[in-house]
Write a structure and sequence with these properties.
The protein is an alpha/beta fold and 582 residues long. The chain has 13 helices and 17 strands. The chain has helices at residues 9-59, 107-129, 149-156, 195-207, 235-245, 257-263, 268-273, 299-313, 321-324, 350-361, 404-415, 447-452, 551-564, and strands at 62-71, 79-88, 93-98, 133-137, 230-231, 249-255, 277-286, 317-318, 337-344, 366-372, 392-397, 419-423, 470-474, 492-494, 509-516, 523-530, 536-540. The longest helix has 51 residues, at 9-59.
Length: 582
């Protein structure tokens, strides 16, 4: 093929090719510049937006659930444990860290503080990042921080116009506490150390040149102090700083709950009585309590009793998971199971007898929660929403139709395979005598059959002119059960009328039988079961007030609860002196 080029065509072709090459080059350069600009924007955008994200985080309120206690009725000695939701603006919130020293005269106190500190530091970091003021208060240890920006900030706050007259002093009690009885004996200082180990610890402190009785020198290093924080152990300084910053809300954490956390010039009592909205972070604190002193409970139960006292008479409490998520902090040595005791019946006074038994015999080794019916509405259980926190429920309820959402909590408890203990009227706890449940309420008549393994059909009663004595006895196979340890031989007179309970479910194991006079039939009185959810069950139809005065019955019920909870039954059951009611 012959190609003929017209005059000028070659030059035009070269020009066109050059233009094409230039266009391609410009396109490539444009693509490079576009990618470069995009890269710069992507690198620059986080730097620009980060302060906005910080600001948005600071604008996000703390969503808190405050736990507090109120009397079941005016002047009552029993309390409902309730919760309420509150939203606190971080900029209006201070978090005060009380006396988390670098050492202590109690070796066990040091161990617990060191175990708790990492979680506490996370809590402080979260609160700080969201805009709360962190106040470090290692009392008596200000000298190492002279010149620190956080120390200077506290000292520089101007005197508040509303400075309370006694804010610089310890506060040992506020008027609300006069309504109750202080729940533990801390007169020995609260050390729970082994004497030999304590002596060795004090020798180590002496060798380090520290005073064994007061070895602290500063706050422990596990808690980070930032320049934007504050450092002070002075109630006046802290109050002035809070007023300068417009602080309305205060969270207190640290040690020790029953001493410094309550009583310091910046402590719970002073904050509460001077109008601050204050809470204790109850899982980030610890007591000074010796289990060898009244009420002779475990160290952790001693802390529970102080927290309970605070919730009744001083202020509400919260937990660290409300900022951090996950689960509340718990000491590794705190392996106690959690028992919920539910009392809603008007015949046998178990709101008194069962509460006292739990305080005397169970508080030592278990965590306890008490639920009582509403005095104004017997078909309602205030606070029962927290039932799921327990491992075992003790039911003393008679013919109640609770709101469906409340009864569903019991159903869920069973479906989760948790343990159930029933006494006396628990066999007809959720069954009305006749008629349907009120609108919005529900019944569960199958609870006796499916959970307890029983077959309640009323009671035999005592007829006029007949021997009124009711007697119970341990059946031979049942006597070997752990719950029957130490049970007397032979028949024992009891006060409770005999329930008609035969025949029991095939899944039950009968431990005791009973009779009325010489009449037949004899009926099962105490048995165990495995309920439909797979959990252990212990039930007894005994429970009259007079029976709670019998050592035999108290031992039976306490051992049954230990067994149902899967806990080893102590060789000697604790029988602490009764706690004064408050």
């Amino acid at each position: 093929m012959t190609i003929v080029l017209r005059p000028g065509t070659a030059g035009k072709s070269k020009l066109r090719n050059k233009q094409i090459r230039n266009s391609e080059c410009m396109a490539r350069l444009s693509g490079i510049w576009s990618r470069l600009v995009l890269f710069v924007i992507l690198c620059w955008l986080p730097l620009v937006c980060w302060p906005n994200r910080q600001a948005n985080a600071a604008d996000t309120p703390f969503e808190l659930t405050l736990r507090y206690r109120v009397p079941v009725q005016p002047n009552a000695t029993r309390f409902h444990t309730l919760r309420r939701a509150e939203r606190w603006q971080p900029a209006e919130t201070a978090v005060i860290v009380c006396d988390m020293w670098d050492s202590h005269h109690s070796r066990n106190a040091v161990r617990r503080a060191e175990e708790m500190a990492p979680r506490m530091n996370q809590f402080l970091q979260s609160a700080r990042q969201r805009g709360a003021l962190i106040v470090h208060a290692p009392s008596g240890c200000m000298q190492p921080y002279e010149g620190h920006p956080a120390r200077l900030r506290a000292r520089a706050a101007p005197t508040a116009a509303n400075l309370p007259p006694e804010i610089g002093r310890w506060c040992y009690r506020i008027p609300a506490e006069e309504q109750g009885v202080y729940p533990i004996d801390q007169g020995d200082g609260g050390e729970d150390d082994d004497p030999e180990e304590l002596a060795k610890w004090h020798a180590e402190l002496t060798a380090l040149g520290r005073n064994p009785k007061a070895p602290w020198t500063r706050q422990m290093a596990l808690l980070e102090i930032r320049d934007q924080d504050a450092i002070s152990d002075n109630g006046v300084e802290i109050w002035n700083l809070m007023e300068q910053r417009g602080i309305r809300h205060v969270m207190l954490l640290g040690v020790h709950t029953n001493m410094c956390v309550l009583g310091r010039p910046f402590g719970l009592r002073q904050m509460a009585r001077n109008g601050k909205s204050v809470v204790l972070v109850r899982d980030l604190t610890d007591t000074m309590y010796n289990p060898q002193r009244w009420p002779y409970v475990s160290h952790h139960s001693g802390t529970d009793l102080i927290v309970e006292h605070i919730e009744k008479h001083v202020c509400p409490t919260v937990t660290s998971d409300q900022l951090l998520g996950g689960q509340p902090f718990r000491f590794a040595s705190d392996q106690r199971k959690h028992i919920a005791l539910v009392m809603a019946e008007d015949e046998y006074e178990t709101e008194t007898t069962l509460t006292e038994l739990a305080r005397r015999h169970l508080q030592r080794n278990f965590r306890l929660s008490f639920y009582y019916e509403d005095a104004a509405d017997h078909h309602r259980l205030p606070g029962i929403e927290s039932l799921s926190e327990a491992d075992l429920v003790v039911v003393s309820v008679r013919r109640r139709a609770f709101p469906k959402e409340q009864l569903d909590l019991f159903r869920r408890f069973v479906n989760d395979g948790k343990a159930v203990v029933g006494i006396r009227t628990a066999s007809h706890a959720f069954a009305l005598r006749s008629g349907p449940a009120p609108e919005g309420h529900d019944v569960w008549p199958e609870f006796d059959r499916d959970v307890l393994g029983g077959n309640y059909q009323g009671h035999h009663g005592n007829k006029a002119g007949e021997d009124p004595s009711n007697c119970v006895w341990a059946v031979p196979p049942g006597r070997e059960h752990p719950a029957m340890r130490g049970f007397p031989q032979g028949e024992i007179p009891v006060r409770s009328w005999l329930y008609k309970t035969s025949p029991l479910a095939a899944t039950t194991r009968t431990l005791m039988m009973g009779r009325v006079g010489d009449r037949q039939p004899h009926e099962p009185v105490t048995w165990t079961n495995v309920h439909t959810g797979g959990g252990r069950v212990f039930y007894t139809s005994l429970g009259h007030p007079e029976e709670f005065q019998m050592p035999m019955f108290r031992r039976l019920l306490v051992q049954g609860i230990y067994w149902a909870a899967g806990q080893e039954i102590p060789a000697e059951l604790a029988d602490s002196p009764p706690q004064p009611q408050n």
